[in-house]
Specification:
The protein is an all-beta fold. Strands 2, 4, 5, 6, 9, 10 and 11 form a seven-stranded mixed beta sheet that branches. The chain is globular and about 40 Å long.
Length: 124
């Protein structure tokens, strides 16, 4: 049974930082491109960042470029999202997802497995 478990969310002031983690189990982690997505109240889920299964290539949404960094540790079956210079508009539930050998630019529908999400709230 595949499980993706996010952690690290919370309440932070604007300009602050948070590090999200997503621990995966039940799959061969090194064969999955991992993505972070977010969904704010009343809005559609959107892609934030992705890192390719074989390591190296990454993708970032324009809204987070230069502020967020995605990384992965295949030995720990974990993907991270380091978020800095946070803004109130970053407030959302953040989800990690796994896409078997997918491209970093793949859309939401291409992801096979999803976590339950972790809330990130940025106060002004």
């Amino acid at each position: 049974q595949v499980q993706l478990v996010e952690s690290g969310g919370g309440l932070v002031q604007a300009g602050g930082s948070l590090r999200l983690s997503c621990a995966a189990s039940g799959l061969i982690f090194s064969t999955y491109t991992m993505g972070w997505f977010r969904q704010a109240p009343g809005k559609e889920r959107e892609s934030v960042a992705a890192i390719i299964w074989r390591g190296g290539n990454t993708y970032y949404a324009d809204s987070v470029k230069g502020r967020f960094t995605i990384s992965r540790d295949n030995a720990k079956n974990t993907v991270y999202l380091q978020m800095s210079s946070l803004k109130p508009e970053d407030t959302a539930v953040y989800y990690c997802a796994a896409n078997l050998r997918g491209d970093v630019g793949a859309g939401i529908r291409n992801y096979d497995y999803w976590g339950q999400g972790t809330q990130v709230t940025v106060s002004s």
